[in-house]
Protein 1
Amino acid sequence: NLNSTKEMLIKAQEQGYAVPAFNIHNLETIQVVLQAASDLKSPVILAATPSTVKYADENYLLAIIEKANEINTIPLTFHLDHHENAEDIKRIITLGCKSVMIDASKYEFKENVKIVKDIVNFAHKYGASVEAELGKLGGIEDDLVVDEKKSFLTNPNEALEFVKLTGVDSLAVSIGTAHGLYKSEPKLDFERLDKIRALVDIPLVLHGASGVPYDSVQNAINKGICKVNIATELKMPFSSAIKEYFSKNPDASDPRQYLVPAKKAMYDVVVEKIKMCKSENKA
Ligand code: 13P
Ligand code: ZN
Ligand code: NA
């Protein structure tokens, strides 16, 4: 049986660190994240976007992660990341998933509230926790492409209102990060984060952490971020290592060989990101 992310994030909030949420895609990436988290004794969130669920199958993902939860001593959860389809979310909750993000950030405030509230009501009956987003990140995540001009930062007063109206468990805020990498170094709006934190008491989530300097992420954590999402910076070393392996071994065909350096390269980044989140030894 899986846990929600509620207690995990509240503990992080109280103790001033963030739980890293790593986007996984298959058995290998799940193994890498869990190995690194176990080695560093860090709580960890395994996040799956809609295209990952489609690619890997929700039943297989749940089976693998439920088994992992049974045999691992670190706190771990399976989290649906950036899901927009209410029916999909509800179905996967009934199958045993205890942590979901309903992303209705593309809608105006009232519609966002309405969509999120419906998921919160459903999820809480199953003991599942819900993350929502207010404001909108730019960049590319999955099939989701948001033009920089269409992105906007979270309004602190609206955030307070949003949390009250929806009863959501954690809030993803838009404070200057974007999904994917950056053309130039991102500048985070820490004043805005301070204002949001002063008004909103639930755990705050930072999306788009790939490409954000270590110090900026840690500053955001010091100012109240307690979940940090990382996707792109894991995919890159994994695929680069495979490319390198094949360039040196063009006749290779055994995944048990060519995936080994990929897993190692990804492992090193997961370790670095756990340290960035200050979640080492918090399991
Ligand atoms: P990055 O791809 O920038 O790491 O963003 C990850 C994310 O926000 C997943 O929800
Ligand atoms: Zn995201
Ligand atoms: Na990013």
Note: Residues 6-277 form a domain with the TIM Barrel fold (CATH 3.20.20.70).
Protein 2
Amino acid sequence: MSDLLRGLNPQQLAAVTLPPQHALILAGAGSGKTRVLTTRLAWLISTNQVDPAGVLAVTFTNKAAKEMLTRLSAMLPINTRGMWIGTFHGLCNRLLRAHYRDAGLPQLFQILDSADQLAAIKRLLKALNIDDEKFPPRELQHFINAQKEQGIRANAVEAWDGYVRQRVELYEAYEQQCQREGVVDFAELLLRSYELLSRNEPLRRHYQSRFRHILVDEFQDTNVLQYRWLKLLAGDGACLFCVGDDDQSIYAFRGADVGNMRDFEREYRVDNVIRLEQNYRSHGNILDAANAVIKNNLSRLGKNLWTEAGAGEPIRVFEAMSDGEEARWMVEEIKALVRDGHSRAEIALLYRSNAQSRILEHTLFSAGLPYRVYGGLRFFERQEIKHALAYLRLIANPDDDTAFARIVNFPPRGIGARSIEQLQDAARAAGSSLHAAIPAVPGKAGATLAAFAALIEKLHEAIELPLPELVEHAIELSALRSHYLTEKEGQDRVANLDELINAASSFTAEEGRVGEEGELAADLASFLSHAALEAGEHQAGEGDDALQLMTVHSAKGLEFNAVFISGLEEGLFPHENGIKEDKGLEEERRLMYVAVTRARQRLYLSFAQTRMLHGQTRYNMPSRFIEEIPAGLVKWLTPKIKVQAPGGRQVHTGVDSYRPTTRAQSGIGFRIGQSVKHAKFGPGVIVNAEGGGNDARVQVNFGKAGMKWLALSVAKLDAA
Ligand code: ATP
Ligand code: MG
């Protein structure tokens, strides 16, 4: 039992073992928030305060959710499969799958990722004959998502002028199109499940009484609707345990609202905000740099981090003539790190914008260094994979027009633009899907389309096959494989198609059983939603010792021994969109804080005098963030700016690490994890016990009143 709690510091221990109540843990990077959240989960379950089915935990990325499940299985001998741990999108998907009828969705509804959504919007504009100069599809997409993220349906948007009114009409038409086609976009997953719970009282009650504990990581980045969703699910009974760091709020541009933290504190009367200030991740210099940078932000809740680790190495700064030189320098440094025994997977290359990865990838590739890109063009977003998935989607639902439009003529089968237009007209006239409108198209066009319909029909007959075989069957019968085999550079694509079959096999083996109804069609549907939601997590060669490339946004919550932050130039990082206003600049600075605090031992910062970006050469100034780091922490690798003598830095030490005793308790009438009540200190939870008979003592966490050792012979402690 105490094994679980061993090594936690007093604040962490207090947070992990809090009595059942709402709690907010507000703490800086690397202070153990995620560890506390995971340990609390394990603690609640292992002390029988809650059943594994009675907790719900939300994390920000699939990677983090997987990590949590792995850590949990290591701590507890329970089967974590089937537990409600995941991202908002993942959990909402699960809810909607289980209650698709109540949610007004077809059983096999499909998920549109952001590229699919854009394609769907373009198709809509075309069908309505709307000028896409006047209504740029991307802007419309942004508008629609922003409304949904605030929980606003088309009929509830306040339209104050003609332009907005037209946008709202398009929003409405888009909603109808999605409904007709049986597809939902990412924002819809959340909104739809929110509406489901708020309108369906029995269902809401069911979940409210089921989830006793709701735990949220990275709470600072939840948006308005996500927060409302959490409140709805928590009802009056569940305990909300939120951890976050206002300094790491980096999704304001997507509607995330740090204000949620203040609202939460107020609305749930959290009178005991726990702060963690010891950082366990980074060496002193790195932490001091992070603290110094973030100090420049005015709107902060305010906190500082310290470490017991030594100052460590200085932060290395490199100025390159060009982006090419910067990349070559990184390759040399990386080679040296690897020679010194660092594993490649422990080295991260971070950048502000995805576009920066191209030159890095090119240089790493030429140098023969294996790497893995997160969040770039991800496995499930590759052209050949999306094509194969579109066939699978049509098997699941022939009315999925997005999938239909993607592959009706791929591989090419002589269905020209004219035939497709005819088909679209027919579908519009009949108010039906493209697939359903095929019989209405006359002549030769009609005949080729009918042949396509027959192909889909034939594929559909195979739906009873086990998932991996079904995938293979679709790849063969659709002629995708033979098509790519004839392409000059099609080998990689064929390899990826094979990888898709592998992905289906491992999905069936690992996660296929999550589906609550055991049908094969449901397997297919959950595989397809896995493909839409988990994009990026699966890649050929996964598990290899590869360098980690990603944007700063996707590095959130992760840690690496060595971190390179490249492209530290004004206009790039801070990004030009953010410089114009203070709010934007502060968000950029929080991003920098996130980037710096990913590093455990070594941090490299670099910038280039010239850089090719989006086809243009740019001449940038070094980022102000470099100047915000005290010179004493920095070692310049290029003689551009003079090195200053290291200044004195303070390391706080001497804090005793806390060790709960492990002696077994016997015959004292209380058990660990039990809720108790004390006349003076209020409700609490037994955390530890020692001694026996007249000497029996228990340690109790009273939340606000703190952690106390009480002698049972004296203290008046009642079971709660
Ligand atoms: P971030 O804000 O970046 O998400 P975090 O607050 O969630 O960070 P964690 O990732 O939980 O921090 O912890 C950072 C590192 O410190 C992890 O490697 C974790 O295992 C380690 N750690 C946390 N608490 C302790 C502790 N009491 N003793 C030793 N190591 C710890
Ligand atoms: Mg974390």
Note: The first strand starts at residue 23 and ends at 27.
